[in-house]
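My main concern about presentation is that the manuscript never shows what a single data entry looks like. Each protein is reduced to its one-letter sequence and a matching series of backbone shape codes. For the editor and my fellow referees, an illustration may be useful. For illustration, here is how one protein appears when written out as sequence plus structure tokens:
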Amino acid sequence: MDQQSRGVVLTQVNITDTRNGEPDVDIIAIHGLDTKSPDTWTWRSRDGSRPTVNWLADADMLPSKMKQARIFTCDWPADLFQESDSIPWTVREFGRRLLAGIHNMRFNSTADGRDRDRPIVFIASCLGGIILMEALTIADNPQSDYVSIRKATRGIVFLGTPFRGTAFQDIAAWAVPVLKTWALLGKRSVSQLLESVKRSTFYLEELVRTFTRLCQDKDSPCKVHTFYETRETVLPRKILPPFLLPFLDKSKPLSDSRY
């Protein structure tokens, strides 16, 4: 694996129908914090009585609508806790490694490198969306090694991405200290990604402004669709380890997760 893309793995999850020609689009799905593929993209019934459904990979789901697409999951080091002696990655470092992983996949899949111009549609969940925005702003430079990825990006679907970061600031007062304490007990540390996102709304505001201008570029426009929760959610239940959840004050939901 290329050193620059270390930790980022792209896996094709469908069989592309090439009877009518070459694949016409690459769909790349990026999961969020403290999860992985295929869990993010798989539906499971609560009682386990019904078969699971992976809407990216199952033949009667997305592949049935996008028969000539190549559909990839993109796994990145999203663990909430990391080894205390490991070098923490910033959002920008995650973005660079994401670009390197995509670049390697598209250049190495064919001998002539023609895949680099194939249109890309991204699906990004939660904090994966922040990393994607950072990655595309890095690539939006004529001198960048990854400018072809930026120019090939035609559409993005964001799923619950915290564009303003307010939900994470709401939990910072106590949830992050709790996580840090638990991490120390296991001689680990909390992911720098969570720290970076919750520390400064200015960073996110500036990133969103830059990304918006990028998407409105006349030469390489990019369509964006966002989906988010509209009901109140106790956000710590999505972040804290399960064994800490009983300690939550259930009568006082900590945060409304509307982004």
Residues 91-108 form the longest helix (18 residues). The chain has nine helices and ten strands.
